[in-house]
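This section describes the prediction task in plain terms. A model, or a person checking by hand, is given the sequence of a single protein chain and must write out its three-dimensional structure as a string of tokens. No templates, partner chains or ligands are provided. The sample shown here is typical of the held-out split.
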Amino acid sequence: MKVFFDRGITFPRRALWYNQSEWGQRYPGSKLHVGTGPFVSGTWMLGRNYVGSGYYGSYPPQYLGRLAPMFQDTTKVLHLFSGSLPRSKKYVTLDLKGRPSVKGDAHALVKYFGLAKFHVIYADPPYTKTDAEMYGIPMPNRRVVLAQCSQVLVPGGYLVWLDTVWPMVRSELLVLVGAIHIFRSQNHRLRGALIFRKPG
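The expected answer:
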């Protein structure tokens, strides 16, 4: 059975998909708060897990798996600053380093993909200039990259931005609809998964 992205599904409804999923049932404390308004919030304690890809700054363990139930109907997926992700037919990766499916600059997404291409974008940029230096890339301009993300998202599409700061973006481009605090374990940075939706 084919699954089609439905832009009419609200983000609170998507958050309920997570709460009802195996993740939400296995870790009841991780359930997302869905109130009467459009905004969703939560906290994910991902626990002690020092076994990863070996790539500096890779996605936290369980992170993508936990997001998956909310975006189970998204078939056109882009990972920005994709780092250690393997190539896959299920998604497109873009990065300046490594072996992404598209080697390129996140400041110029429209150049590579055109307009309104993706249902969801996952982004895990360098958080600081020091991080960027460790990757051997320039520090991205968050405002420019978010504006580009808006251009390549379909109306009603989502950007999940993992960062240590809340980046600035105009509300006509992207609207913040959710925030999930991400804790790994001691001596790891605290991060936030900020979920933006493109109006339309």
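For orientation: Residues 76-163 form one domain.
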